[in-house]
Amino acid sequence: MSRVRHDRLDCSPGCAVEAALQFIDGKWKGVILYHLLDGTLRFNEIRRRLPGVTPRMLTNQLRELEADGFLARKVFAEVPPKVEYSLTGRGRSLEPVIAALKAWGDAHADFAPKPYADAAA
Fold first, then answer.
1. Where is the HTH hxlR-type domain (predicted)?
2. What domain range is 32 assigned to?
């Protein structure tokens, strides 16, 4: 299912924020971008860093990030196939945003809500 994108960003004061968040929405996109800040990674290297993601979900998230211009995907003609992912200039431009999110998360992780299973206990 494709996402609805803004054609114009002048609809309201928060509209640009909403539009920006649409690019990195998804459970894994922000984390994928964070790990790619370290450099180029292969599919299984990304997967090892995200143990909770399924291969299908990771593929979908990588495809969306590539379609939005945040990732470059390089396929090598060899057997087995080798595919590398790296940030484009547009993806690299998110570095201060991702760093700020990480810093905020580090400072506030102790205040995260408890999962429902723990709350019932």
1. 15-113
2. 27-105
